[in-house]
Task: inverse folding
């Protein structure tokens, strides 16, 4: 058990505390507990491979911040530190799995509130043993990974929807009234997974019956390039022959 001092991260294959691979060194648990008398005994948890989970202990939130390095996978927070402690931990460790630890003075409503606030689970100090803690740590880490993956997926979908809506809004309405010509456009991106670019076009029939067509391209991809493309398209009528 590591207490009161930061330990340099061990070499692992995982990229961070929420990576898909924890490497060969197993899991690390940061325990933040309020026990001035030092009577709290932490059961020895094991990871899925049967390897002992490394434990660090912090007596307060300031010490916890110093011990919260990238190789920490899960945090076990004593709810006796106060209702604001969980909010603080969730704020400083948004990518870490967090388990709440309820004492004799905490009831079911306190456990439910901890989970509603953002903890992956709430454990009872009186019922805590090595097997329960091991399972809770593994489940919390995987649940946090799933939550982050789901959030990224939803964010990506929302971004794609916004890009698609913006692209539809950038499409011109060809002005060919009075002409026998018909207009059709087909766009095929030159790169895979292209969502938003700076290509633009327009077709306009002037009063003398002449049909003017323009095709342009802004170098680069993204909302800034698309905005520049629409500015150029809007400015084009002022420069075309009359």
Result:
């Amino acid at each position: 058990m590591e207490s009161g001092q930061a330990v340099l991260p061990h070499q692992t294959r995982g990229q961070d505390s929420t990576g898909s691979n924890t490497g060969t060194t197993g899991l690390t648990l940061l325990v933040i507990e309020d026990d001035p008398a030092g009577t709290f005994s932490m059961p020895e948890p094991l990871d899925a491979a049967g390897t002992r989970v490394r434990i660090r202990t912090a007596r307060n939130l300031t010490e916890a911040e110093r011990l919260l390095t990238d190789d920490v996978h899960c945090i076990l927070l004593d709810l006796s530190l106060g209702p604001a402690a969980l909010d603080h931990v969730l704020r400083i460790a948004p990518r870490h799995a967090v388990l709440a630890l309820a004492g004799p003075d905490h009831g079911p409503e306190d456990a439910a509130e901890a989970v509603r606030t953002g903890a992956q689970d709430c454990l009872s100090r009186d019922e805590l043993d090595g097997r329960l803690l091991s399972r809770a740590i593994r489940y919390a880490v995987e649940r946090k990974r799933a939550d982050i993956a789901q959030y990224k997926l939803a964010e990506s979908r929302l971004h794609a929807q916004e890009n698609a809506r913006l692209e539809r809004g950038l499409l011109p309405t060809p002005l060919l009234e009075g002409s026998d010509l018909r207009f059709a456009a087909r766009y095929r991106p030159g790169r895979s997974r292209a969502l938003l670019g700076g290509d633009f076009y327009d077709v306009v029939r002037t009063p003398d019956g002449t049909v003017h067509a323009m095709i342009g391209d802004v170098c680069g991809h993204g909302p800034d390039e698309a905005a520049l493309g629409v500015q150029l398209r809007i400015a084009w009528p002022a420069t075309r022959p009359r």
